[in-house]
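Backbone-to-sequence.
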């Protein structure tokens, strides 16, 4: 613990808690320096490092005067040091790694996954935010665990980690009410509201002498309202903002709470006996500038910055192209000037809010979805992103009629690009079986006729 203790000594927010679960008379007190007695032979120590809710922070607080706290490169070297002292250390994440709030977040998320892959996490819980770009986006990168949402067999419902005689069973419960997938149609995510299967698995794990760890984005109180925690040894509850919570016992469950934004790691030192916690202590490991960046991640970081730059230049080029007038699209507001009646009908239709609906399900940055929920995505001069092409959001006139700039410049004398297309052909661009199973031209057209 040496160097961390000296780092910790300088910081006021550290916790250092030391408890035994059973009364002292029954259980041996486990403390540093205590020699093992014969009665303790079946006990073994285990260290769990845990974290949660990185929330897309490659490097948090890079702008502050003190420099940033934490960050992926520093986390890598801290974990390396911890593992060099104890190769058996178990490293768990409660998930929430990604963010999908801005145009650069997809790229950043890709690099977070790559960076995390270098950590060799033993298991990572999936949170809704991790599914922002779809299950396929994250699937192969890490040992993800998701116990109550069926996203097409992409993730394990539980993950077993073995260390010596002890086995740790890691589970993850997501709040179904917070599911953005709920509103989607078709094949998207089935959330199981009933905890029956998870409770069964927890019971079985305990019966087999495993240490059960459950991650959730809910608070301990909320999850206790949804299911019994009697077979949960350790609950990693929903993250607090930045600072780790103080661990506590709720019944027989040890509840820990990670802090968000990747600034710190939680360290739980356990004394176990056949999957039962005999004693524990807890501390929070900060990641100040004195922890060096892991050199292995230097190339990863440079590559990320290169990609961000390339992305930025692409954006600038797209904007220049639009302002130079080379886009064949004009946007609905221009059509409105001559077709006010048609515009009114369109404005009141679902098509006009197709992009907002994507935002509601946190998918407004997934090209696989944007395609049908904006104008001309991936076509020259078409929708690019919210900032550059904010006039091409949603399913607009030009999604159906085709690019209209030439038509507008000729004041209607030239036909729109898709003039001559049948209704069927127009609708079939997007109303395909997979995304609109109930589509029927005879019933759908009257709803949008103009
Ligand atoms: C400056 C006025 C003006 C603007 C702006 C304008 N239109 Fe027109 N549009 C016309 C006129 C005039 C006609 C009728 C032409 C005719 O009947 O021969 C027309 C006809 C149409 C028609 C039916 C005939 C055809 O060409 O297929 C469609 C569809 C149409 N416009 C779509 C659009 C769309 C989409 C936009 C925006 C991209 C738009 N218009 C913007 C003036 C305009
Ligand atoms: C091939 C085109 C297409 C793609 C790709 C597509 N959608 Fe859609 N989406 C549609 C159509 C068409 C509808 C309307 C379905 C209907 O009502 O029949 C729709 C409806 C929706 C709705 C329902 C809105 C409501 O209030 O009922 C949501 C939400 C949605 N899509 C999200 C997504 C997400 C998320 C993705 C990416 C995973 C996606 N879509 C990809 C065409 C598409
Ligand atoms: C979902 C596809 C779709 C969208 C969105 C859409 N249209 Fe149309 N529009 C059509 C179709 C299909 C027709 C042809 C109707 C027919 O043949 O009876 C049509 C017909 C028209 C016509 C000719 C009307 C007439 O009286 O013959 C105009 C003008 C027009 N649209 C303008 C617009 C404008 C302006 C917008 C946007 C504010 C818009 N449309 C949005 C599909 C669409
Ligand atoms: C560019 C893709 C695209 C095209 C082309 C398109 N739609 Fe849509 N449509 C959508 C999307 C996306 C939605 C879902 C919008 C939302 O609610 O977020 C939708 C929704 C609808 C709805 C509302 C469904 C409901 O449950 O109220 C109707 C009706 C509809 N479309 C009819 C049509 C018809 C008819 C055509 C062809 C003339 C057509 N659409 C062409 C993408 C498209």
């Amino acid at each position: 613990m040496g160097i961390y203790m000296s780092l910790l000594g300088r910081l006021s927010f550290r916790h250092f808690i030391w408890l035994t679960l059973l009364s002292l008379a029954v259980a041996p007190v486990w403390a540093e320096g205590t020699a093992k007695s014969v009665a303790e032979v079946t006990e073994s120590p285990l260290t769990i490092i845990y974290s949660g809710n990185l929330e897309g922070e490659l490097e948090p607080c890079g702008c502050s005067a003190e420099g940033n706290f934490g960050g992926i490169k520093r986390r890598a070297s801290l974990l390396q040091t911890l593992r060099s002292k104890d190769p058996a250390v178990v490293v768990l994440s409660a998930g929430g790694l990604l963010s999908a709030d801005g145009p650069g977040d997809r790229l950043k998320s890709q690099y977070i996954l790559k960076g995390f892959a270098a950590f060799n996490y033993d298991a990572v819980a999936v949170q809704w935010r991790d599914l922002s770009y779809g299950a396929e986006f994250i699937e192969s990168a890490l040992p993800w665990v998701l116990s109550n949402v069926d996203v097409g067999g992409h993730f394990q419902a539980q993950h077993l980690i073995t260390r010596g005689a002890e086995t740790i069973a890691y589970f993850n419960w997501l709040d179904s009410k917070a599911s953005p997938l709920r509103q989607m149609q078709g094949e998207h995510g089935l959330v199981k509201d009933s905890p029956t299967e998870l409770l069964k698995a927890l019971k079985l794990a305990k019966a087999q002498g495993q240490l059960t760890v459950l991650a959730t984005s809910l608070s301990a109180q909320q999850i206790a309202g949804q299911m019994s925690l009697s077979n949960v040894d350790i609950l990693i509850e929903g993250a607090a903002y930045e600072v780790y919570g103080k661990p506590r016992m709720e019944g027989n469950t040890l509840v820990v709470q990670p802090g968000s934004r990747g600034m710190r790691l939680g360290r739980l030192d356990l004394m176990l006996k056949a999957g039962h916690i005999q004693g524990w202590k807890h501390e929070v490991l900060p990641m100040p500038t004195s922890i060096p960046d892991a050199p292995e991640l230097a190339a990863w970081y440079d590559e990320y910055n290169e990609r961000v730059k390339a992305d930025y230049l692409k954006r600038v080029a797209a904007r220049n192209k639009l302002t130079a007038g080379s886009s064949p699209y004009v946007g609905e507001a221009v059509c409105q000037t001559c077709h006010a009646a048609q515009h009114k009908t369109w404005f009141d239709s679902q098509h006009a809010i197709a992009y907002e609906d994507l935002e509601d399900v946190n998918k407004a940055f997934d090209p696989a979805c944007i395609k049908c929920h904006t104008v001309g995505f991936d076509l020259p001069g078409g929708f690019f992103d919210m900032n550059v092409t904010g006039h091409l959001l949603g399913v607009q006139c030009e999604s159906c009629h085709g690019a209209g700039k030439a038509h507008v410049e000729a004041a209607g004398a030239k036909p729109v690009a898709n003039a001559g297309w049948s209704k069927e052909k127009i609708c079939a661009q997007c109303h395909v079986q997979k995304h609109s199973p109930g589509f029927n031209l005879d019933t759908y057209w009257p709803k949008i006729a103009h």
